[in-house]
Amino acid sequence: MRAEELKGHLDSLLLATLEGGPRHGYAIIDELRRASGGRLDLPTGTIYPALHRLEQARLIAGSWSVAAGRRRRIYQLTPAGARALAGKRADWREFAAVITAALEARPCPSPA
Amino acid sequence: MRAEELKGHLDSLLLATLEGGPRHGYAIIDELRRASGGRLDLPTGTIYPALHRLEQARLIAGSWSVAAGRRRRIYQLTPAGARALAGKRADWREFAAVITAALEARPCPSPA
DNA sequence: TGCTATACGTAGCGTTGCTACATATCGAAC
DNA sequence: GTTCGATATGTAGCAACGCTACGTATAGCA
């Protein structure tokens, strides 16, 4: 999976993962790997800045917790985040349809 | 259609459009608009640099022509471009499947 | 003591698509 | 005749994004 492809779609994945309940960053990586059959294995340097962005945008809310001596930042969807996710799902469906159509459809033969 | 979404997929669209025969930049914009039902309306500042990239990568070959007093740069797929397009189509199908799965699938409830 | 897994973080980089602008020709409108 | 829009190409500079590479820290096991 090339890196550039993911651009603009990562936020949707993170929000969708948090739809299943609050999670911390490391667990989100695990869940995305699981949900994709291992094809989505995102580095921490991708996840954490993205979570910070989403938190600043108030789409997710974070809080610290400590379990087994390890500090974790637990994130959960805000109402705004849930609305954003719905919009992003619709966006994705349209985007995927457009790209698929343009890729698969035989274009009109060029007049040249 | 948000801008970031397209990143990493534009090259595929351009190659696919040229699969229908040689075309110049302006005509590619028209064809993409037609093939997408108007939902893909790319600015020239997006198309031309992308075409230059693809030409430098030898995936397309350009040549000047003059019709009705207007100079045009006609591009056509190279054999390498056709191979690249096949790969990109496969990439897209996998990418779309992964994102769709991650977006639609209910994730495992978090243990938290 | 060292290694691995867990867990978070950031600085810097490279790629990419877009905005805004510049240039030029042609045909139609005024 | 000049203005305007469509046709046609081009570039400089910007902003956004995901990744690499690093750093920090704790827990558990060999």
Describe the structure.
2 copies of one chain form a homodimer. With 112 residues, chain A is an alpha+beta fold. Chain A is built from 5 helices and 3 strands. Chain A has a 3-stranded antiparallel sheet with strand order 1-3-2. In chain A, α3 (25-35) packs across α4 (44-56). Chain A is globular and about 65 Å long. The interface between A and B is large, with 47 and 48 residues. The structure holds a DNA duplex (30 and 30 nucleotides).
Total of helices of chain A: 5
* Form type of chain A: globular
| Tally of strands of chain A | 3
The chain-level structural class of chain A is alpha+beta
Portion of residues in helices of chain A? Answer: 55-70%
* Beginning-to-end CA distance, first to last residue of chain A: 36 Å
Order of helices and strands of chain A: HHEHHEEH
Strand order of the largest sheet of chain A: 1-3-2
Query: How much of the residues of chain A is beta strand, in percent?
Result: 15-25%
Radius of gyration of chain A (Å): 17 Å
